[in-house]
Amino acid sequence: MRCTHAACWSARSLRHTAYAAAAALVLSAAALTSAGTATAEPVAQLPLPAVDPFYHYDRPLDDVAPGAILRTRQVPYGFHDLATPLTGTQVLYRTTDQQGRPMTTVATILRPLTPGAEKLVSYHMAYDALGSECDPSYTLTGNGSYSRAGTLEQGVISGYLAAGYAVVVPNYEGPDLAWTVGRQSAYAALDAIRAAEDVLDFSPATPVGLAGYSGGSVPTQRGAEIAPDYAPELNIIGAAAGGVPVHLAHNLPYISGSTHWAGVIPALIVAYQRAYGFDTDPFLSDRGRQILSTVDSRCIIDFAAKYPGLTDAEMVRAPYTSLLDVPAIVAAINDNIMGTGGTPRVPMLLGVGDADGTGDDVMVTADVEGLAREYCDRAVAVTYARYDRLSHADAFVPFQAQAAQFFTDRFAGAAPTDNCAVVGTGNSLAPVPVP
User: Fold this and answer.
1) In the CATH scheme, what is the code of domain 6-246+344-422?
2) What are the residue ranges spanned by the domains of the chain?
3) Closest C-alpha among 98, 110, 248, 249 to residue 185
4) Within 10 A of 103 (CB to CB), how many other CB atoms are there?
5) Per-residue pLDDT tens for 276-290?
6) Residue 27 in 3-state DSSP?
7) What is the pLDDT of residue 7?
8) What is the secondary structure of 185-233 as a DSSP string?
9) Which residues have C-beta within 8 Å of that of residue 377, sequence separation ≥ 6?
10) Tens digit of each residue's pLDDT (9 = 90 or more) over 215-234
11) What is the pTM of this model?
């Protein structure tokens, strides 16, 4: 399949500058990694967040402001059991859940390697998890199991640190690990920025970028949408979201029966049940219940490809034939359609692969284009990038390259650009009728 889409050509035209930026990030990360592994010292073993007292707070929160710090501690910044010379500051802070109620979560704050002008990236890792061992606050210390995706993302984070950015990495899924849940993820990301600026003693005028791929695109994109109302004091200067799950009613039939991504289906049921509190017994099949009990404390690497060929029809019992027949599921999906939370007031980079003419094996390409079109029509400066012939995993690298250049321009104060003139209509993002 040739790259004939104009937005795709726009991404290609950035190849030299974007890949140069990516190379700089990779080299910087490699230098940091080498510095850390040269010590060959094991990281300090920390308890899982689920049983670590630092994560738990039992005092009233109603009168505590969003973003307020409840406690802090210093932690190592490690790579898979190996220490680096760096440490981070972890904060337990007050934020807001999907239903608007106060809750707490944790973020990791990392100072740049070289002091300079105040600039902050809120980086949202795609931890896509149902169990606390996957929390970024845990894995960034060098604890937890190996993940290729997590290692690549930590390389990107290290690159930003080496380039002079401070970085805050929130556990945006919250204490119950509500994966892909939009408002809650966005609140947690924005409140983490508030907490980070407090810890770093940054002024409210500090420029901030939002970045995330795949699951990390959820707090990135939603954060840009709700920031004007929820956190208007933050000086967010741009948001880069790649591999974006725009409308999960469209993703569901795409991954149903797939080889590598069908295990996401039961995980999404777990996440929605946690966020919305509905009863799964009326619609789950016996097999569905068994699979849910298996995945409900796992990381995505442990479930995404573990059920090849699994269909959403197998998860439900009669009279249901699909999860899209279940009112509670459809209502939850509709509540998380991107583009419905508000209008960003900052330039946006939206990127997605197109491996097969439909999507990148898990995300639907025309959904991302539809979101870009929606933003363009609202006068948002959007750059839409389609990475032809690339899967979800493969598109990560060119997206990070383009994001690096995007942030270089944004933090330098360059005039916003867009390619709205060549963005197509994409898919409709209308909600699904609730059965």
Assistant:
1) 3.40.50.1820
2) 6-246+344-422, 248-335
3) 98
4) 18
5) 999 999 999 999 999
6) helix
7) 52
8) HHHHHHHHHHHHHHHHT--TT-EEEEEEEGGGHHHHHHHHHHHHHH-TT
9) none
10) 999 999 999 999 999 999 99
11) 0.92
